[in-house]
Structures are given as structure tokens and as C-alpha cells.
């Protein structure tokens, strides 16, 4: 079997020094009983494939970043490939994702995880337990605050509820919410009682990204978790739950850049790309560009 290309053709290790950024994939997290997460597990390699047209262009000017990806300096990001995950091995998958996150943080480096459905951010953020406090910026169409679904408490409707229970998480900003999802009145009340700052997509459209960034304390260490359905389906059709009125590409990269300027990105994950629903590779291309922006922003952090 031919090995999948790495993201942007990045190496899997550096010949000189330690990386500042480590990318890894996590195909499966905690799958609900009777559900199949196999299509979500395709996401990391689909995104890697979409990045290949830009592989080797590190010295070219990037107008999102106002300069080359690595600012003309040595490449400092690696793609470590995928960690082994198995559908329905929920506890095992969580343990492996958390362990890999801790491993990257110990280098020290900034981990970037490619999911996978929206259950994988739970162990990813759990991996920061010894590196807190952290704030969490969730970009998503849904607040994901269910207590449990079919007896499973760590699935794709539960991540922000579980994250709110982590002692090292100091606060949370949830941005991009719109339409109807899994949230009931009780989930909204629970999120607000916790102190989550919920910023709807409409608020971002009318007030700009500062409607969300203003809630993040200056200098905070922030883990960004980006669910692809947070973006509008006109540019991100490859998701399970399309919802009109989502964030634009520019709004999302402005959120990423804004965190890097106001605070510090300590970790980043991108999840919920559903390749079977993509149109002409548009979602994979958009996701790849979002990751380029995340890498470029992290590299520019002091």
C-alpha cells in the first residue's frame, strides 16, 4: 500500500532541532452505539492530499499571512502521521489521543490534530492537563453540550460538556452557533451556567470577529477546536449537518490570527470533515488552507 503524502509535503522529523508544531491525525474517537465513523476517519488523508498543490511553496508570498509560511526561516513543522485508532474502541482511542497530545506538548511543541468526528477534541484537550490553565475557542455550528447520547458521554455531541468539567480549562468561547442542532433548553442553560461565552454566527456577521475575541483574556493560552460545520456550507459542503448562515473563510482565519495576536495558540484541532459529502474537493481545500493559517499564526507567536 502506498503511503499517504504528508501535509504540505512536510517531513516526519527534523534533521536539526525540535519542531515547534507537530501535526497528527486521529481517525476515530468515541463512536456512538450503532454509528459508523469510518467516513470521518478519511478526513486527515483527504486534507493532506488537498494540500499537495502548495507543497514546496513555503517561500512564496501568502496573502493570508502577509509573508511566506515560515517567514523565510527553516521549516519547523512536522507531520507525524496518524495515531492508531479503531472504530468503537472508544476508551482505547481516547487514551491514545491523550497520550499523543501529551507527548507533543512535552517536546515542547504545539499539537495540531486532524480528526475524525467531533468526539476527538475531548481527549485532545484532556492532554493539556499538565499545561494549564487553557482557554478553549470552539468554532462550530452547535454547542455540543449533551450529557450523554445512547449511554455514551464522550461522543460528538458531548465535547464541550466534557471539556467544561476539566479543571485545567479556565474558560470557553463558542462561536458560529446557528440553526437547530442537538441542544435542548437544558443544554443552553448548562452552558450559560458554566460561564461559556456563546457568540452566534449572526453576531460575528454584524459585529465582526471581535464579538468572540473580546472574551479571550489577553495573554491566555488557547486551544482552538474547529468543527468544519462552523463554516458556511457554500465553502464547506463536506459536513454531516449543513446549516446555512455559517462563518466565512475570512472570518475564520481572522479568528485564528486574532487569537495569535491577542493571546497564544497552544493547540489546534480540525474535525468533522465528511469527505463523502464534499463537492469537487472544496471542503478539503478550505480545510487545508485553514491549517496553513493555523501553522503560520503559531510560527509568528513570540
TrEMBL record:
Gene3D superfamilies: Ureohydrolase domain. It comes from Phyllobacterium ifriqiyense. The keyword Signal does not apply. It is an enzyme of class 3 (hydrolase). This is Agmatinase. GO terms for molecular function: agmatinase activity. Keywords: Hydrolase, Metal-binding. The keyword Hydrolase applies. Its EC number is 3.5.3.11. Belongs to the arginase family. CDD domains: Agmatinase_like_1 (cd11589).
Amino acid at each position: 500500500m502506498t503511503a499517504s503524502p504528508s501535509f504540505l509535503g512536510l517531513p516526519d522529523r527534523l534533521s536539526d532541532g525540535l519542531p515547534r508544531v507537530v501535526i497528527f491525525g486521529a481517525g476515530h474517537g468515541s463512536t456512538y452505539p450503532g454509528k459508523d465513523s469510518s467516513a470521518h476517519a478519511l478526513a486527515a488523508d483527504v486534507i493532506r492530499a488537498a494540500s499537495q498543490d502548495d507543497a514546496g511553496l513555503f517561500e512564496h508570498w501568502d496573502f493570508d499571512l502577509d509573508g511566506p509560511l515560515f517567514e523565510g526561516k527553516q521549516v519547523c513543522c512536522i507531520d507525524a502521521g496518524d495515531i492508531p485508532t479503531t472504530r468503537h474502541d472508544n476508551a482505547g482511542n481516547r487514551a491514545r489521543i491523550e497520550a499523543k497530545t501529551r507527548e507533543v506538548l512535552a517536546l515542547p511543541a504545539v499539537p495540531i490534530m486532524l480528526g475524525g468526528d467531533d468526539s476527538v477534541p475531548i481527549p485532545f484537550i484532556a492532554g493539556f492537563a499538565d499545561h494549564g490553565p487553557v482557554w478553549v475557542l470552539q468554532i462550530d455550528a452547535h454547542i455540543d453540550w449533551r450529557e450523554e447520547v445512547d449511554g455514551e458521554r464522550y461522543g460528538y455531541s458531548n465535547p464541550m460538556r466534557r471539556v467544561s468539567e476539566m479543571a485545567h480549562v479556565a474558560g470557553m468561547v463558542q462561536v458560529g452557533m446557528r440553526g437547530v442542532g442537538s441542544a435542548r433548553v437544558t443544554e443552553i442553560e448548562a452552558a450559560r451556567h458554566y460561564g461559556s461565552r456563546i457568540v452566534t454566527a449572526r453576531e460575528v456577521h454584524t459585529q465582526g470577529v471581535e464579538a468572540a475575541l473580546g472574551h479571550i483574556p489577553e495573554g491566555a493560552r488557547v486551544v482552538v477546536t474547529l468543527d468544519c460545520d462552523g463554516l458556511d456550507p457554500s465553502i464547506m459542503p463536506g459536513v454531516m449537518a449543513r446549516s446555512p448562515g455559517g462563518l466565512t473563510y475570512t472570518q475564520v482565519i481572522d479568528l485564528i490570527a486574532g487569537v495569535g495576536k491577542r493571546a497564544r495558540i497552544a493547540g489546534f484541532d480540525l474535525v468533522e470533515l465528511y469527505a463523502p459529502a464534499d463537492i469537487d474537493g472544496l471542503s478539503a481545500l478550505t480545510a487545508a488552507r485553514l491549517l496553513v493559517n493555523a501553522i503560520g499564526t503559531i510560527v509568528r507567536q513570540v
